[in-house]
Records
---
Amino acid sequence: MSSTDRSARTSTAMIATPAIHAEQLCRHYRMGETLIRAVDGVTLSVKAGEFVALLGSSGSGKSSVLNLIAGLDRPTSGSVIVQERDLAQLSREELARYRLHTVGMVFQSFNLIASMTLAENVELPMRFAEVERGKRDSLAREALTRVGLQGRMNHRPSELSGGEQQRAALARALINRPQLLLADEPTGNLDSHTGTEIMNMVREFNQHLGMTVVMVTHERALAERYAQRLIFLADGKLVGDESNSAVNAADQAGVGGGRP
Ligand SMILES: Nc1ncnc2c1ncn2[C@@H]1O[C@H](COP(=O)(O)OP(=O)(O)OP(=O)(O)O)[C@@H](O)[C@H]1O
Ligand SMILES: [Mg+2]
């Protein structure tokens, strides 16, 4: 099934224009005499509702690309357009709003705030988004229940397993209903069983909420199991872009069969 057909099947929030377009994207760092070309002329489009994996060896520029798409960093040159907005044109405040409402991010190291309970962690982006206080608590609890953490609402991150922390981080990333989920090695610190649990949740969000997913991973096998498309980086350059026939065929059959 083409991704257009998929959008029809999964209904919500999908449009034909690319969700993300990077054009000749560069992020160079000057370190004394040397220039590090972390991202070096990447041109790339991701369709709304697509699930893309970014692969490449350590230092190839994967996190740098993801951070530019997330609006956490600004390009040295080139542009990133997300849902028809050129991130370079956004003011600091607009960029902050973009990060709060349009993107959700998860990291290898979970990045939960240690002094806060899970419910408080998940509530935090709603506080920033000025969601009414009365609504926040029940929305946070609902989000944690959705990821199976109803029994852990008042625990602090240090009292949880890695998988539970990552599930909480997912709930937090998704609490403001972003259209875009950016994940940087989301299963990198998890055993394979727990990693599969997290990936199945990410797939759910992609398939049933129509969320666009860009996931950085070292693991080709993981990418092949979940992503519709594999993009390869080396030395900051895009060196490969493959459609993943196994996942696309499973989506076509409507069974997610290639992704046990
Ligand atoms: N703030 C920085 N200052 C200088 N160089 C940097 C900075 N951030 C990243 N780099 C360099 O840019 C290159 C790309 O880094 P990046 O973190 O994007 O790689 P990666 O593909 O995510 O690697 P890994 O798989 O190890 O996470 C690396 O050579 C890195 O050393
Ligand atoms: Mg990285």
---
Amino acid sequence: MFEISPAVRDAILDHARQGAPEEVCGVVLGRHDGTEGGDRYVPCANLAADRTTSFEIDASFMAQARASGALRAIVHSHPHGLDGPSKTDMEQAAEDDVPWGIAVLDPVHRPKLFFWGDMLPVAPYEQRVFRHGIADCYALVRDWYRQERGLVLPLTPRDPDWWTKGQRVIEDNLHRFDFDAFGDSEPLQPGDVLLFQVGAPTINHTGIYVGNGLVLHHLTNRLSRKDVLGPWKQKYHARTMRLRPGALQSAVQSIAEGDGR
Ligand SMILES: [Zn+2]
């Protein structure tokens, strides 16, 4: 959870409304000594060629904000309702060391503002509200491994309907981090990653086996939850992946060396 004052939140949403149908951008600054409070929103020009679908912050503005030591977040808007980071947003935010925020406008719902980034605390596993890319099935598996095992799986920038575009979000990452597939005859262990095909010709859903016959998972547009695995496995299960014993240490080391993304 990223805390900002109501005044800063209002300033960001007002900027987003005024700028629609173009994307707007800016930064949240805090105190220069990094202590809590004193937040303010500083809007800046969007330099992108096509401002209705993208944003670009002036490099010298950004350099100044970073050099000030007061940069708390980088913000832009989605005036057309995409309620989650785009693939490009995920690619750029992955390189950053401050949270990113997105103000979402759509004609039906109230405007929203959310922040994400690995520097923020992991949200509780259950009852998460779905949000593509940051509160979806793979994000839950990734958060679980980060919190329970200290293993940071890649962020994997992805489109909202990635499995229809040939993006292999789940399997490739797991193979890269020494997860192996194993047969259905072996009993499951907590932390095993289950891969599902839910109404799709390819793997498009994942969950974590958490023991006691339960799978922790996050379906699109539902709250994250634990379910009895049996029926799920029977209907949708494609494969089970387990971290190779002894693999964790080397994976964690490679992350420390900067290979984690
Ligand atoms: Zn965006």
